[in-house]
Amino acid sequence: QVQLVESGGGLVQPGGSLRLSCAASGSAFSAYAMAWYRQAPGKQRELVALIGTDGDTMYVDSVKGRFTISRDNVKNTVYLQMNSLKREDTAVYYCNGDWGRFWGQGTQVTVSS
What we know:
By secondary structure, this protein is mainly β. It has no helices and 11 strands. It has strands at 4-7, 10-12, 18-24, 34-39, 46-51, 57-59, 67-72, 77-82, 91-97, 102-103, 107-111. Strands 2, 4, 5, 6, 9, 10 and 11 form a 7-stranded mixed β-sheet that branches. It has a 4-stranded antiparallel β-sheet with strand order 1-3-8-7, with no helix packed on it. A hairpin with a 4-residue loop joins strand 7 and strand 8. The protein starts with a strand and ends with a strand.
């Protein structure tokens, strides 16, 4: 069983930046595709960004050019760098591993002035 622990959320002004981290337990991290999802109040959880085992990435259109997903297979950690944040980015952000097998507990991101 893999445990995922997110960190890095918080309150930021519009236009600001945050970097989320997701630390994974276990030794098979490099074999898993990893992703970030988010869920805003009253909305369904949506895929934000994904990184494959080969480093290929994909993003939802609303964050393209602003968010960057990356991974460090030595540190067993996946990151989400979020720049030019908008109010509509406010949500709980969840780390996901191996196509939905593993989930973190979530970290709150609030974009507000």
